[in-house]
Amino acid sequence: MFDPVIAPSGTLLGLLQRGRGDGTLHALTAPRAEALAALDHCVLRDPRHDWQLENRSLYYARLHLDLNGELDAMEAHLFGAQDVLDTDESRTGLALAVLGHLASYGRRDALELLRRYAAQGSNWAWALDELALRDDDAGLRALAAPVLARFATDPEGEAELAAAVRDAFEPRPWRLWAEDPRPSIATRVRAAQETGCFDRWQRQLRPTGPRPGWSVRAVFEWAQQGMERGAALYVPAARCLVAVAGPEDRPEILRAARDGIDGARCTALRYLADGNDPGALDLIEAAVADGTPAVVEAAVDAFERMRSVAAVDRARRWAQRPDALGAAAGRVLACRGAARDSDLVLGALREAVRGEGPDAPTLWTLVDGAGRLGIACAAPVLRHVYRETASSHLRGRAARALAATDPSFATGFAVECLWDCEETTRELAARHAETGDARVVERLRRLAADPAEEAEVQTAVRSRFGPDATLG
């Protein structure tokens, strides 16, 4: 997956890439050709840093409908030579998802394009999943032969077919094909379904990892073996210690947390922190001071999970540290601190934005903390994060924090949030946006009538249409 280049937030392209509500509002007033060019750029060059977490498809599909856009650019993208050379599903997934939403809105050309891609394209499984939700039985049955033709009839091909059936997100097409009147179709699909079930059963009979009766030392060795393979097993290893370790094993675990090899040290630190051991905090501090990067990361993560009063008190002492433990202390206070910790949380928030920018991972927790603690003077920083972050999820968190800290939110950002790409942000806006703005009333009514809108958003919209609502 390529690393997306995000345009400045003040441009139409930058707004659309971020999935901001203002992107739609600006596109609808811009020259149509310019708006469509920016929209196609986003759909064909997925701008999300985490395409499996962030939403854009419904947002882009709605704008595509509003602009009455054509599908030529998406068709060229899907059926170009690159589809054979680059089969990563992230290259075509967003375009296919947009086509799926367009099909659900009644765009027949989008449905036909999905059918053709499912029959011919490299990311056919994604297209088939989109069709499984939207196509009729006849349309899906027509795809049985071209899809099965992708798999050879030798043992290797049948194994690949069984894996495809087993891993499908939407089973509807395969169930239809298992009942197909053509024996050549139904027989292969039923055999693949049975093989997939047998594979799952076999995996359950071959568990790996610790067994009953293992010693503390054996658990440490297993964690180290995983680390040497590049697999961080210290978290499940720490859970294993809960089952196998007794009071007599504490000295050995403390030694491992103090100076053990990386796998054992990470495991011991996690185990002691999860159990709120009285020595855990000092051992975490020591690990940050002299541990390898893997140990430092495990120690910081273990500290952030601690819920004790002692951990919060220690976070107040560590919050000024200019290292990973200091940053973690700020996040601990953001999650579990009290009103008296507001200055420390605000300081951590400002420092993170200054030092790492508006997309810093640490901001997710700090932004939530600013809202939880109601830090009114954090509003300027939160507005900056809202405008500049490329993460639609972080922007939604900033919106929630602004709703709790910024009196102007209801007449400002809440209005544009009604067009946001994330349903949780639209839900927040539906509950807060000031209805004195005529655009708000119209948008709420449109969301209430849109069959593609999430149920939570429509519930929030209906709450504004109650007996005391002022929607006119």
TrEMBL record:
This is HEAT repeat domain-containing protein. SUPFAM superfamilies: ARM repeat. It comes from the Bacteria. InterPro entries: ARM-type_fold (IPR016024).
